Amino acid sequence: MPAPSRSITVLGAGILGLWQALILARAGHRVRLVEASEEPFADCASLYAAVMLAPDREAENAPPMLRQLGREGVGLWKGFYPQLKANGSLVVAAARDRGELDRFARRTQGHRLVDAGELANLEPDLHDRFTAALYFPEEAHMPAPAALAFMLAEVQRAGVEIAFGQADAGDGADLVVDCRGLAARDALPDLRGVRGERILIRTREVKLRRPVQLLHPRVPLYVVPWDEGLYMIGATLIESDEAGPMTVRSALELLGGAYAVHPAFSEAEILDLGAAVRPAFPDNVPRALVRDSGRRIYVNGAYRHGFLLAPVLARAVAAYIEDGTASELVVTSGL
Ligand SMILES: Cc1cc2nc3c(=O)[nH]c(=O)nc-3n(C[C@H](O)[C@H](O)[C@H](O)COP(=O)(O)OP(=O)(O)OC[C@H]3O[C@@H](n4cnc5c(N)ncnc54)[C@H](O)[C@@H]3O)c2cc1C
């Protein structure tokens, strides 16, 4: 027999809270989504994401289970978001860093080495820029603002009551699903911030169809094509809670990276320079922590994987609420 419908308050309308609210409402629960900011996405890390769904590339520095879960995340996004750009992604390196490309290939899966000719077919504008690249065909991407707006509309359509400009504790609900991002440090002392800076530029001079990552000794640099000539250049990875303006050093590194991918980026207009802080646990693995005798579930620590894993986390939490199904993402030991 299915579990009875419950009254659930989701705190936080970043990407984790939106997916939780959607899946729980679709499972038949009465869901209220409470967001502290007055305007949608005014104070969330999610708006700053690239957004790449890159489980194969992320596997370079993540535990193997994240690759498998991330691949499931890509599948869930593909079935849900019609605007998803499922064109794969590329990794390149300057000729002097060819060894970096080989090292990256050894540490990741789901790719194949393409030569200059095939690279020119995939991305004509990279013709003559690189002699080889790694192609990750299963990866996908989407612009963060459009994806978040789509999610919010779907959450509304699923019947979720949404309250902006409120920061209540969810009192009165049967269950609180806490997705407050870094603000949940008041309850999760292990949570830390990892600053990420990114630049938005616009140009008609370069046309790319998929994210291009440039291997670089200090910064994981990438250029992600959004829409209408808009590109997101990211991103720094700095152990800091500071969300303030971008530094000159970071701007130089990011813009230098874009220039190395294609010199015509030097003619682009800079539209925005910004930074946000990713919430992360010590092992950089996101999870749902069940606390307060099962009345509160903290979903947090998404680090670089918030979009990638939000649907997988939401599915795992919904299964736990339904029948107590345990999973590697739902931790009940602190119950
Ligand atoms: C530069 C950059 C690039 C990134 N690129 C990628 C990428 O390519 N792919 C990917 O998967 N991930 C990427 N990420 C990571 C991703 O953005 C994060 O993992 C994700 O945004 C975390 O989502 P969240 O919902 O936990 O937190 P947030 O998005 O920060 O949302 C938390 C929300 O809770 C609200 N809140 C706070 N306190 C309260 C309260 N008391 N009551 C109600 N609401 C409250 C906040 O206002 C906020 O809206 C990137 C991050 C950065 C910074």
From TrEMBL:
Cofactor dependence: FAD
Domain of life: Bacteria
Entry keyword set: FAD, Flavoprotein, Oxidoreductase
Gene3D superfamilies reported in the protein's UniProt record: D-Amino Acid Oxidase, subunit A, domain 2 (3.30.9.10), FAD/NAD(P)-binding domain (3.50.50.60)
Reaction catalysis annotation: a D-alpha-amino acid + O2 + H2O = a 2-oxocarboxylate + H2O2 + NH4(+)
Domain FAD dependent oxidoreductase: 8-319
GO BP annotation list: D-amino acid metabolic process
A GO molecular-function descriptor: FAD binding
Record flagged with keyword Oxidoreductase: yes
Primary enzyme class: oxidoreductase
Record-listed E.C. numbers: 1.4.3.3
Similarity comment: family membership: Belongs to the DAMOX/DASOX family.
Protein name: D-amino-acid oxidase
Native species: Hyphomicrobium album
